Amino acid sequence: MTPPDVRGLEQLEGALLDDKTSLASALRRCLLLGGYAHHEELRTWALKELEGYAADDDLPAYRRVPAALEINANVHHFGGITQYNGRRISPHLLPEPARERGVGEVVPILNGVKELEGLVARAEKSVFVAPPGSAEYALLMTLQQREAGNEDTEITSLHWDVAVASIEGILDHIRTRLTQFVAEVRASMPPGQQNPNPAQIGDAAERAFNISAGDNATVNINAPKAHAERGATASANINEPVTTPAMQPFWHRTHVIWTAVGAAGAIASAIIAWAALK
């Protein structure tokens, strides 16, 4: 018995080729296509990209991007308060609880594509992402400074400075994978066939969605092999870590070399919340 044809491929192809169409719209069409084909893994992947990933999910490698750790700090003195915003720090200067939870210079991006598209549209260069527990970590760093004799130093916040280009890279990767999927389906269809059948959808999904998670475990999409993509092994460039960070203020150049982001307002940034680290 010939399997029934699957509807929706033409609509998905049109959405992918139209740069004005939201990637979220294309993913919804992919979700429907997976439903028509009874392809559970394809539906699961499309739904996670639409709604976002949970903290305990195996995150695809392309959703882990390099980013610098930065702090905002106030120094209180007789003449007032001096603010130090967007100061880069080494992960070795984080309090122990943050290091134990894996806070470093690689950021898992869990948000759904619609939210990511909105962030890219609003921000110019950077997106600030606050790790869970950032307020607690800022307090601990303040206490460390006071224990070192820097009683006028207050660390007010901790965040990642994620380049908008990295977010765009995630969106582009998803669009490219979907385009590859459509191309694989088209290649499997003989001349004259109007719509693919479920078997063709399944074979194309295996060839197109060979996505790997951050720990190089294959995501459940029937992938024949793991494939690490953008952000899988990349890391931000940092200076040599210090061994005694509590001996000097965070802006002491012999212990922490950082880069100022620029004057306030020079970079339009959006702050997104990240639920939890694994």
Looking at this protein, list some descriptive labels.
disordered C terminus, two-stranded antiparallel ribbon, 278 residues, 7 strands, elongated, 8 helices, 36% helix, five-stranded mixed beta sheet, alpha+beta
Walkthrough of the structure:
Helices cover 36% and strands 17% of the residues. With 278 residues, it is α+β, with helices and mostly antiparallel strands. The chain has a domain at 62-164 and 244-273. The chain has a five-stranded mixed β-sheet with strand order 3-2-6-5-7. Helix 1 (9-17) packs antiparallel against helix 2, helix 2 runs parallel beside helix 7 and helix 7 (164-188) packs antiparallel against helix 8 (198-208). Residues 211-218 and 220-278 have low confidence and may be disordered.
- Dominant shape: elongated
- In order across it, which strands form the biggest sheet? 3-2-6-5-7
Task: Name the beta content range.
Answer: 15-25%
User: What is the mean pLDDT?
Assistant: 77
Please give the number of β-strands. Answer: 7
Helix content, binned percent: 25-40%
Distance, first to last CA = 47 Å
Number of helices: 8
* Low-confidence region ranges: 211-218, 220-278
How many strands, what sense, and barrel or not for the largest sheet? 5 strands, mixed
**Helix-and-strand structural type:** alpha+beta
N-to-C order of helices and strands: HHHEEEHEHEHEHHE
Radius of gyration: 23 Å
Set out the fold topology.
Layout (H helix, E strand, L loop, with lengths): L8 H9 L5 H14 L3 H12 L12 E3 L1 E10 L2 E10 L6 H5 L5 E3 L4 H10 L3 E5 L3 H14 L5 E11 H25 L9 H11 L60 E5 L5
Parallel strand pairs: 5-7
Antiparallel strand pairs: 1-4, 2-3, 2-6, 5-6
Helix pairs in contact: 1-2, 1-7, 2-3, 2-7, 5-7, 7-8
